[in-house]
Amino acid sequence: MADIAVVVDPQGVVSDIVFGSADLLSDFSADWVGQRWLETVSPESRLDLEALLAESHTDGMTRWHQINHPSVRGIDIPIQYRALRLTENGAVVAIGRNLQGMTALQQQLVDAQQALERDYWRFRQVETRYRLLFRMVSEAILIIDAPTQRVVEANPAAGQLLGETPTRVIGRPFPEGFDPESTQAINGLLAGVRAAGRADDVRARLIDGVQEFLVAASLLRQENVTFLLVRLSPLLTGMSANVLPEAKTRYLRILENAPDCVVITDAEGRILTANSTFLSLAEIATEQQARGESLDRWLGRPGVDLNVLMGNLRQHATVRLFATMLRGEYGSTTEVEISAVAVRNGERPYFGFFIRDVGRRLSSEQPISPEQTRWLDQLTERVGRVPLKELVRESTDTIERLCIEAALKLTGDNRASAAELLGLSRQSLYVKIDRYGIVADHTPDAPAPEHKHLP
């Protein structure tokens, strides 16, 4: 009938006990028979047990009471008892149900509830950050339901660019308000993103012809629903161009369509803007792909050329005819000359790079200096009179000195840049300069020289 049955005499001493399972019997090592029942329970359960016995003497049949018994494993085992008075002299039989399984289920329920609460508040915090970022970002962003192409969410910047409040944009089909050609291009972009997960950005213009955008899209999956994340970046055309003076507008158009590459970077060399000629040589489709990337990604000697250019720009503000290579995304290389200028903009300067393709230019051999001629003549005359090992050692020293002089000339006697160009530490370069007695051709206040190819 029960997991445990206990018979207690009028003095509260256990006179008989029966366990319904061997597992429960193993949890209680001491024999309860002959002990006071109050001594077999946990201290916090004694008042409940006293109430149970008192209720049995007064009412005959008691309600269910939960009593905890200490076990050999060191944990309390909850038992739910109901007592019945058997005789007039006060003998009581109590039957109990083992609540261990129910307690474990209750604890699991509490743990699951706490985990749900933690996940809920974590989700709320993430959603709050997302909402705040979504509203504060300066770029126009739309979230579109992929099957219906209707706007699900729009940030304030999107509403401002489209001439509507965000609430009025939500629920409307996209694209809407663009000219027919732009609508077709955007539909093709969205179809490509749905099919392949990505597609090239497209240009689009509003139906009134005032504002032009660069439209980019990406796929976003949430559970079983597919969304399209669309970004609208205004281009410097139409209404935006009219804000600038006419002379400045002409400059921008000329730079954009110049046959030489024009790149503007920040103080760390990350690209802010680039014209179409640079995009062509770098083999990238849109300016968006280059924006934010380091110019060093496309220069011939990674980690060297850009550092030399930046060092000279910080020191002299201008660099002319720096010879290097420009690498395309698909492996092509182009010989180029770079002229650059540093423009101060308060505490955040930016640099302009003018890159010219010189690959088809007729090359002229560098003239041999009289010093090089004398060295070659002396080397030839000494063959046969001096051991080859000594000739090689002397030749190595001479070539090393010529390379150091060429690097110093290339970097305008900037020893730090020359060491980086040669792949040496500054200390090693200083030691070699002192060893060969090389004297700088320019004072520190002299302007940067024009950089030529290494002889």
Automatic annotation (TrEMBL):
NCBIfam families: PpsR-CrtJ, sensory_box. One of its GO terms (biological process) is regulation of DNA-templated transcription. Residues 126-197, 247-288 form the PAS domain. It comes from the Bacteria. InterPro entries: Biofilm_reg_signaling (IPR052155), Homeodomain-like_sf (IPR009057), HTH_Fis (IPR002197), PAS (IPR000014), PAS-like_dom_sf (IPR035965), PAS_fold (IPR013767), Tscrpt_reg_PpsR-CrtJ (IPR011785). It comes from Chromatium okenii. This is Transcriptional regulator PpsR. One of its GO terms (molecular function) is sequence-specific DNA binding. Signal peptide: none annotated.
